[in-house]
Design goal:
The protein is an alpha/beta fold and 462 residues long. The protein contains 20 helices and 18 strands. The protein has helices spanning 10-14, 17-25, 28-47, 52-60, 62-74, 100-110, 130-140, 151-163, 184-191, 206-212, 239-249, 276-281, 307-315, 317-322, 326-339, 342-348, 350-356, 359-372, 414-422, 449-457, and strands at 82-83, 87-89, 118-119, 124-125, 144-148, 167-171, 177-178, 182-183, 194-198, 217-223, 253-258, 286-290, 301-305, 379-391, 400-409, 428-429, 431-433, 436-440. It has a seven-stranded mixed beta sheet with strand order 5-13-12-11-10-6-9, with helices on both faces. It has a five-stranded mixed beta sheet with strand order 2-14-15-18-17. α6 packs antiparallel against α15 (326-339) and α15 (326-339) packs across α16 (342-348). The radius of gyration is 28 Å and the shape is globular. The two termini are 33 Å apart. It binds pyridoxal-5'-phosphate (PLP). Residues 150-152, 155, 176, 178, 182, 223-224, 226, 256, 258, 290, 301, 393 line the site of pyridoxal-5'-phosphate (PLP).
Length: 462
Amino acid sequence: MNLYTKIPKVDQLLDNDKIKKLLEKNSKNLVMECIHEELNHVRNMISKKENEDLILKYIENLSSNIEKKLNYKKEFKLKKVINATGVVIHTNLGRSALNEEIFNNVKNVSIGYSNLEYDLEKGTRGSRYSHLTDSIKKITAAEDCIVVNNNAAAVMLILSTMAKGKNVITSRSELVEIGGSFRIPDVCRESGAELKEVGTTNKTHLSDYENAIDENTAALFKVHQSNFKIFGFTESVSSVEMKSLKEKYNIPIIEDLGSGVLIDLSKYGLTHEPTVQECIQNGVDVVSFSGDKLLGGVQAGIIVGKKEYIEKMKKNQLTRALRVDKFTISALEVVFSYYIDENIAIKKIPTLKMLTISSSDLYEKAKKLINSFDKNDEFSFDIIDIDSEVGGGSLPTQNLPSKAVRVFSKSFSENDLEVFLRKRKIPIISRIFKGHLIFDVRTIFEDEFSLINDALNSLLGD
Ligand SMILES: *Cc1c(COP(=O)(O)O)cnc(C)c1O
């Protein structure tokens, strides 16, 4: 059979009721684009000699396929997904989730105008950085602060301001690569600072730093290892120990903390991470950290430390290129307001809440998820123990016992289910564990339960 003769003409399609309806609500260009793409798709199927029945069926459903294509094109490409992976700070899924209160402040500030750079007291031009200064200073006990686009930008700005044309001394064990090709040696080079590597992969002594100091040394530079840990015969120099060198040679200490932890996580059963406050207390002159990792806010790089250095950073031309907008500032202002009281921070910041939820609460959540599913013959469920991950290169060795709902299906393989859920209009990102699809409930919000139920129901035959 010559299948090409079965392909309808464009005019015929334009006469089809379904297409006519599409034309009422959409631009003719968009509808035509979808028609042409679908017709090309059919021609391709024929030239690739695909199954004849399949091709005929596709042609029979052509107007529906055109409608589907059009709806897909009209969807926004960046969209909400449901994170059922259990990875809390999932960089591919937007890192930290916000709560409604944070979002409402962003909305309130951005629909219409704001005093972003306007001093309401004086009626003159103000500084966008001023809005966050008081709370960050209060929480961290630092002299001053500045917020830029992300922590990578923060490190760049610090080195460019404090060490351009000079050298900084860093331990070989801290020359890390963070996902997305952020490498400490490369960032250093880009900022115009020379990196002086000292020590070995596993051991660096105070004397290694001291021996490397010369008249061109701008700073001692510590970097959090973030996404890896080394064990065994190891030694590193803490910022407290560095203090003696700082005083003897009169050079500052810079620390890239990576994740911005403001509370002692060991109180909540997690590994202790050096907090920003500890760094400042230990005499680190300038500390930088991310806004959307353990801090639980939005993408930002926060720099705190001595006023003399921060002042210089504010005058650096780079700052103009790295500056944050009102979305970031208005979101962070709410996030930092929570940190004034640690108990509130743990309760309100989704990232911290998800990391500190108890095992019994996770079990209850898993039960609730199963109970929210409609009963049918296709699917059944049980609850299993699973390990979640912190993610975002934070606390890489932290084990985080969690609960997951395991899916048993009569007709679908775990791989087919995974793909189907991922390609939904509101995608559900799940995991496959030992031959079964699972939903780790740690990172699923309760108001998303019904969406998972809808997705599973849509797989049932009628
Ligand atoms: C994550 C991280 C960065 C990069 O931070 P972004 O906010 O993602 O730009 C830099 N340094 C360290 C040590 C990190 O862990």
